[in-house]
Amino acid sequence: MESSGVKSYRFGSVDYVVFLGMIVLSTSTGIYFGCIKKGKKKIEEVEPTLPTTVPERRKHDFGSEKMSEYLLGSRNLKVFPVAMSLIASYISGVTILGTTSEIYNYGTQYWFIAIAIVLQGIAVSYIYIPVFSALQVGSSYEYLEMRFHSVIRSIASFMFILDEILFLPFIVYVPAIALNQVSGINLHVIAVVIVIVCVFYTFVGGIKAVVHTDAWQVLVMFLSVLAVAALATYYANGLDVMFDDASKGGRIIFTNTNPSPYVRHTVWSVLIGGFSYWTSFNAVNQTMVQRYMSLPSLKKARASMAIFTIGVAAFVSVCCWVGLLIFEMYKDCDPLSAGLITHDDQLLPLFVVQSVGHIYGMPGLFIAGIFGAALSSLSVVLNSTSLVILEDIVRGCFKMQPSERASTILVKSTVIVLGLVALSLVFVLEQLSGILSICTSMTAIAAGTTFGLFTLGMLVPWANTVGTAVGGIASALLAGWISFGTQFTIAAGQLNSQKLPVSVEGCAANVTLPENVWVDEEQVFPLYRLSYHWINPIGVATVLVVGALVSLVTKPTNMKTLDPDLISPVIHRFLPKECFEGRNPQAQVHKNLLHTAS
């Protein structure tokens, strides 16, 4: 009976109004920042003004003021919209759907990720952002050329582009499946709408449109999940009963201190692995650094990071709470076993329909939230990747200096091409579901290795180009070996599922649980049994250890001639005083380039 109820559910008129309202707001934001506000600015510029502004930075304006405005908002954006855009950079529909099902299937130990998020916020603010702020980079990968060599920069840039292209299908496909299930709208129609709307406002308005659209999309997203959490809590049987049921079902886990690296979630794996993964993304990934650099000062960049940290920790906590509510509702009838859903990512949409679907506008608000998360994440990828292709590939790798018109054509055509790639990958993904796990592995490898390169440069003063290259290659090979080996082992059915037990006793239809076939994991190579949390820290540690040791053996960098701006402030006390005395002509060249006539 429940199954047919879900399948026959369709949007009401109120839901459509809420949902379409968000699409209209997205496109109108792009038009406003791309056409109307730009027009106003041009009128204001006609009035004569004194030359009080800082002259253009030859190295970091992407070849023209117009491109700097389009890609970095002329480094003059406001803290709150940028903080919301940072949240949008990381929180996608995948995060919302994945976190809730993680709690339902594996218990509350994952909730410790909120602590890891707070710790990474402190680390990013005081170790990494000050370096980018001092150098005033346009692209984070410029740092790798300043610190090491243009080859390191080019490799990291290509890894970023590949990483983002592989991330595109996640952003579009996973929310599209969820929306399809709740609304009944064709999956392909949803994917096309997401891509067209997103490409339009990113194409027209640049980073200003992206940041300001992200700001209210994140608010809608937060409001929708908060509303679902509040209403579902209100309709639940009481908090005492809920916690009692969750405890009986083995879902309340906060003190699993098992030292085994093979257990999916322990205090150590979630804190260490979560900290490493979140820091690797938020400290050096271009999607984040581009937003820090769009703010006028280090103080404002740190303020936006603080808002981001608090906002994301709170948002993930709400998603974890909803995961417990889902368990309370389905403790006696697991939807996956009962055939109500075909994938864990459909768990939350089903819960929304069955728990608060009767309230006018609620499904529409929830869909608008998931849709907004997809739009905001996609727009961030389009905007950042187009910047990296212009600055790091065309200008950095190929040493070309395109005109303002050529740069504009390149950047905007990149946005359109990436949109088409996202759409085509959705169709590929639909036919080859196994490719999703391959994409996951590739993104994990790229994130850990790239973060290791930056950390080596900023925290290990003697690191040189050879050490960095060897460390990066060793890290990518080791992380790739573990990641792909694990995927093949899972596909071959050689690992036991660590999902907690579920029940089907309360199902309306006659449902039997599938038998769990136990396999002896001792026969599996140890590295292939590791919890996924450990892959990122292993990749980062490999770059640091191998890079530092090889650098020591192969003529380490002379610390007396090192530009201190290239090293994190937390290491400055350990640097020789010659660094800070302006005796280094190379450092002076960097400063002259970066602070011309400032």
TrEMBL record:
Segments spanning the bilayer are: 16-35, 79-98, 110-135, 155-179, 185-204, 216-236, 266-284, 305-327, 365-389, 409-429, 435-459, 466-484, 534-553
Q: Tell me the domain of life.
A: Eukaryota
Its annotated compartments are: Cell membrane
User: Which Pfam families does the record associate with it?
Assistant: SSF
**Protein topology in the membrane:** Multi-pass membrane protein
Q: Which PROSITE patterns match?
A: NA_SOLUT_SYMP_3
Q: Name one GO molecular function term.
A: symporter activity
One biological process term from GO is: sodium ion transport
Entry-linked InterPro entries: Na/Glc_symporter_sf, Na/solute_symporter, Sodium:Solute_Symporter_SSF
UniProt name for this protein: Sodium-coupled monocarboxylate transporter 2
Q: Which organism's genome codes for this protein? A: Drosophila ananassae
Gene for this chain: Dana\GF15277
